[in-house]
Amino acid sequence: MKTNSSPTQFFRRSTLVLGVLTLPVVSFAQGLPTLENPSRGTGNGIMQTIRNYGYDIVLLVALLVVASMFIGVCYHAYGTYAEIHTGRKTWGQFGLTVAIGAVLLVIGIWLLTEATGIL
Predict the structure, then answer these.
(1) Is the Cα torsion angle 46, 51, 54, 59 positive or negative in sign?
(2) Please, what are the averages of pLDDT over each run of 10 residues along the chain (119 residues)?
(3) Using CA atoms, how far apart are residues 65 and 113, in angstroms rounded to an integer?
(4) Ranges of each domain in the chain
């Protein structure tokens, strides 16, 4: 059986093999940062470490919830401010919107702090 291997095919194959063999070396040589421990520490075993990472994830989700609440309050206050200039709302309604929004944010932050304290 006759094989048809040209120098170009040999060069391509050797480049591919060399690339695959040096791939792990390249990833170690880049100085990638190591994975940080969770905020509560690593714990005594793998389950405790996973639980601690879960706690950090819950804290991140709580932060996103509070941030979305803040954006919602700002959006509604901006809409009320825009309607003042068209005459549909008054400055008193704007102040009430901002005050109630601030109270809702404080309540939301307090509730999420209590919820993460349970964990």
Answers:
(1) negative
(2) 68 78 63 78 86 90 93 95 93 95 94 85
(3) 12
(4) 36-118
